[in-house]
Amino acid sequence: MNNAYLNRVFEKVKQRDPNEKEFLQAVQEVLESIEPVIEKRPDLEKSGIIERMVEPERMITFRVSWVDDQGNVQVNRGYRVQFNSAIGPYKGGLRLHPSVTLSVIKFLGFEQCFKNALTGLPIGGGKGGSDFDPKGKSNNEIMRFCQSFMTELQRHIGQFTDVPAGDIGVGAREIGFMYGQYKRLQNEFTGILTGKGLSYGGSLARTEATGYGLCYFVDEMLKHKGESFKGKTVVVSGSGNVAIYATEKATQLGAKVVTLSDSNGYIYDPNGINLEVAKDIKEIKRGRIKEYADRVPGSVYTEGRGVWSVKCDIALPCATQNELNEDDAKALIANGCKYVAEGANMPSTPEAVDLLKSMGVFFGPGKAANAGGVATSALEMCQNSMRLAWSFEEVDAKLKGIMQNIFKSAIEAADQYGSADDLVLGANAAGMLRIAEAMLCQGVAY
Ligand code: NDP
Ligand code: 2IT
């Protein structure tokens, strides 16, 4: 980083939170990429915009105690980081995973601000969750945890304040338990969560939105290079919500998806993933991806990480942060991969991103590429406010339009700031500027 202002801001963040590895990684990536913007906009320094953007408006941590099926008291830590409300109520998911720390929630909340700004919709950025591990828990244990979590969270959220949603470990089941508890405590039926079930205010196409949106974004990347999904081989990591629906849309658009993974290993299916089987294992039985190989002849399960060693044209990391490192990037490049787009948040390490970009791989950063989920959440909020429900086709068409616009904003900003096709710069610059304009209008009161 050469810019003195950005260096000062980053040094201060490091000094304040030296141990927040993931948060520092996310901040460094943004600050490095927006240097050319800062050089052209001295007013941003004068108004202290960047030092304000890297400090959350509010951080809440709380105790979540619940009773397991054996009658033992369990205690987890809950978080909600309300990062930036310049352009709308805080918006962002809740993650339930043992790896959750304040650093993880802060990195996710920070990235969420830029992503949400890119959608063009009126949503600020936030994130929350807990170090609770949903694996191996009974339905009743999940319910008791979610009720206890919401018992505290309900004080801090609201349809005009902060609207959480799902993320890793939080899907329709958990959102339902949390929504029920909110309603019980507040005696109010409002759209305070998104990703709700269709029977109580959810939006059609929200389940599919992140994965579908990712593919609509990749479709724009492909078109930009005069190509399409047709006949391409795709490697997808993860086997959760994002991975499943990215696989579905990529397949519909004419590609062959040959892998899915989880934290234990990955499956390779040379005939293309059989989604009926994958959905049955993951969505109905809540099983492990290993079971796919037992059910689909010709497919193979391999224990461990290694999904990036599979030959492909397009790689879509859809599991978790830092799952694709420099060695993985080398393997992808050696195998002729030409496109990498992030379904997960920050799945590629900085070294991997640098290498991919320097070797001419067209790279779609998560803030832009996976924004379809939160964009459709904002469409769910809109329908809730209107007390109306749109058809699947209507929501899907809006989602596609939003993803096309995000690509356009990012590619144009990359051009404008002198780095053609650098979607990292483009997405960070376009998102940052939208938030900055709103902050400049609103003064320095927070
Ligand atoms: P799910 O909980 O549905 O699935 C998560 C998947 O990632 C599982 O296959 C899981 O495997 C794997 N995974 C999680 N943690 C790890 C880990 N530490 N190492 C290896 N594999 C891991 O989550 P989603 O599909 O919703 O989320 C996936 C990613 O997409 C996350 O980064 C999330 O932040 C991001 N995202 C999600 C959006 C949404 O709308 N849901 C929107 C935008 C981004 P296992 O079962 O073994 O844990
Ligand atoms: O990372 C993300 O964008 C999400 N988990 C979705 C957030 C949302 O509010 O829908």
Q: What characteristics describe this protein?
A:
446 residues; 7-stranded mixed sheet; 2 domains; Rossmann fold; globular; binds (2Z)-2-iminopentanedioic acid; alpha/beta; single chain
Structure description:
Helix content is 49%, strand content 15%. The chain is α/β, with parallel strands linked by helices and 446 residues long. The protein folds into two domains: 4-187, Rossmann fold (3-Layer(aba) Sandwich); 208-364, NAD(P)-binding Rossmann-like Domain (Rossmann fold). The strands form two sheets. The protein has a seven-stranded mixed sheet, sandwiched between helices. Strands 1-2-4-3-5 form a five-stranded mixed sheet. β11 (339-341), α14 (350-358) and β12 form a beta-alpha-beta unit. The radius of gyration is 21 Å and the shape is globular. It starts with a helix and ends with a helix. The mean pLDDT is 98. The protein binds NADPH dihydro-nicotinamide-adenine-dinucleotide phosphate (NDP) and (2Z)-2-iminopentanedioic acid. NADPH dihydro-nicotinamide-adenine-dinucleotide phosphate binds at residues 97, 99, 166-169, 210, 238-243, 262-264, 318-320, 323, 343-345, 370, 373.
How is the secondary structure organized here?
Blueprint: H1 4-16, H2 21-33, H3 35-40, H4 42-46, H5 49-53, E1 58-67, E2 73-84, E3 90-96, H6 102-118, E4 124-130, H7 139-153, E5 162-165, H8 172-186, H9 206-224, E6 233-236, H10 241-252, E7 256-261, E8 265-268, H11 275-284, H12 290-295, E9 300-303, E10 314-316, H13 326-334, E11 339-341, H14 350-358, E12 362-364, H15 366-369, H16 372-386, H17 392-416, H18 423-442
Parallel strand pairs: 3-4, 3-5, 6-7, 6-10, 10-11, 11-12
Antiparallel strand pairs: 1-2, 2-4, 7-8, 8-9
The structure holds NADPH dihydro-nicotinamide-adenine-dinucleotide phosphate (NDP) and (2Z)-2-iminopentanedioic acid.
(2Z)-2-iminopentanedioic acid binds at residues 91-93, 112, 115, 165, 167, 194, 345, 373-374, 377.
